[in-house]
Amino acid sequence: MADRGASPPSLPDDWPDHPDPILALNRMGGFDWDLDAGVMQMDAQAHEIFDLRPDEYDDRPESLGSRIPSGEVMRLNTVVTRALKAGSENYGAYFRVRRRDGSLRWTHTQGYIRRDENGRPRRIIGIIRDATQELGDSEARREQAAQEDDRRRQTNVVQLTTAALAHARTVQDVIDVLKDPHGLTRLGAASLVMGLVEAGRIRLVAEGPEGSSIPGTEVTGIEEPYPMSEAVRTLSPCFIDSPEEFAERYPRLWQGLTGLDITSAAYLPLIAQARPIGAMGLLYSDRRGFTAEERNILVALGSSISQSLQRAMFYEQEMDLAQGLQQAMLPRTIPSVPGADLAVRYRAATIGGSFGRDIGGDWYDLIPLPGDRVGAVIGDVQGHDTHAAAVMGQLRIVLRAYAAEGHPPATVMARASVFLDELDTDRSATCLYAEADLSTGVLQVVRAGHLDPLVRGTDGSCRRVPVPGGLPLGLSAEFGRLDYPVGTLELDPGDTLLLCTDGLVEHPGADLDDGMEDLAALVAAGPDDVRALADRLIDLAGERGGGDDVALLLLRRRALDGARPGGRLRQRVTPGDPEALAGARRMIRTAVGSWGAEDRADEIELVADEMITNVLMHTEGSATVTLRVLDGGERRVRVEVEDSSSALPRRREAGESGVSGRGLFLIETLTDAWGVEARGSGKCVWGEFVPAKVSTPA
């Protein structure tokens, strides 16, 4: 008889050096069983119960064989082994002891199992007592205890399986939990099969152990004479109590099972929302028949597995939808950009390590712009769900539209922030927008709460470039219209710009600045080719894992490989935007220097500044400044400033201070040629310069 319902004994760690006096007073003996060493120490009262003198016992459990009949030894070992494998904390059992005079007396033992931090059993501390008087009818008591133990074991099957399935996220996770050796042990079955209903047929998706499936049953019809088909067809469990019944009811299937020593089986329908989604078969080699209680427990087990499968199917459907949505929102292709080598990568987050990929709001984009310019965008919408992906898609389209309209970077970012705020969503987003002029290498960068960019030089070094930034997008309602300062940097031919989201940088427990330093070191040590470098970085992110997705954009400015005509730079300057005016000045200065026209650099910059200032002061619109090299006989640098006003510039007398009124005089004096052209609804004021030397922009 087995009795596992009593509370475990409370014994000190140094037992049996100081046995509890209460145990002795109650005629209970104690033992301490070291499972690793195979040593079981017993106190004097335990020796008395086994009718052993101290010199007759050598602390080895097998030495008790002379006192415990072989049948009792087997049954006691079964109880202990089952408790050890099932993860139980204690066990109890009745068994008979043969005393010195040959008589048999009932005893009862109860053990408390101590395990290490990995759950491995290391030690059993317990008590043993004479139970002869307690058990008046030993056979009845033993049968009752065995039934209770079996009932408890069957109930544990459902509880332990449900607990194991609680962490299963996908259908494959559910299958892995059930078919691995631990799962089969937990279920108490010798073999397991599972099939899912697909298009009116049952497809086998799991077998355990491996190789136990029957050839020809990988795909079966619901109407075919198989127990799994019957369970799906009738929505009722199919119990097979004996080999004879199996052979009679399902002879075709039984022919493939004859070598597996199967004595009974239970085929359970897997039902979700009142419809069958599959069936599972549990095959046993150590039992015949099922009691009513066992059948009820197995039905409950099937219900638990069905719920896990349904949850996993819903999760996979949601993931398919989310991933499809995100892929639709991300750019399908990246356009080729003359003068640059490009690479982009995206990696979805991995949640829970071994579980599936999650969805997120990270994105990248590349926007071709007029005049050898290109806009590079990296961003991250808060959250990991379909809503984040949807917001990301809208924000990406809006940023692209604002940039394509010709707005300067600061305006693009400010308008995107207002748009996100007006979406009436609870999400914010970080973003970095870099507008690069590939002719001069000038980059205008605007940052909204995002990571700074990295730049790798031609010498292989990589540095983080601090860029002034503003608040994340979407916070306009809380802080009013947000301003985004513009930072300027230059890419020399061969330099590589790297933009990424924080999933590539952040490490659990590590500082963000340390993560940026680590990333810079990886980039410096990486391959020169931007595609190979992007693959390397995204692979490292995958190896590291993490709960955030990763977006990555690399832009490498190509080295100058010969002259080509028609180089042109273009920028828009809006009223009330001093950063745009300063950016235009930097663009002109950098371009003129790169073209080798340094002898006229100050004059060109001064004339352009005067033209732009006239537009901002005397019209109500913005100014568009264009800088180009003309190659007609002698090479000239031409500055054009367009506005939407049709009023022509006119000479004015200088004021008393001598500061204003000299604009046209200045332009006429410093240029080699100048003029005014009508442009649609506005006009263009232009000036040309003939430097001593000028190279055609690359």
Total beta strands: 29
Give the number of helices: 18
Helix content: 25-40%
Unreliable residue runs: 4-9, 352-357, 561-566
Amount of beta strand: 25-35%
Q: Which class do the helix and strand fractions yield?
A: alpha+beta
- The average pLDDT value, as a whole number, equals 81
Strand order of the largest sheet: 8-7-6-11-10-9
Task: State the shape.
Answer: elongated
Could you explain the architecture of this structure?
The longest helix is centred in the middle third of the chain and has 38 residues, at 292-329. The termini are far apart. β1 (28-34) and β2 form a beta hairpin. This protein is an alpha+beta fold and 698 residues long. Helix content is 34%, strand content 28%. It is elongated, with a radius of gyration of 40 Å.
Observed structural traits:
about 700 residues; alpha+beta; six-stranded antiparallel β-sheet; six-stranded mixed β-sheet; 29 strands; elongated
Structure at a glance:
This protein has 698 residues and is α+β, with helices and mostly antiparallel strands. The protein is 34% helix and 28% strand. It is built from 18 helices and 29 strands.
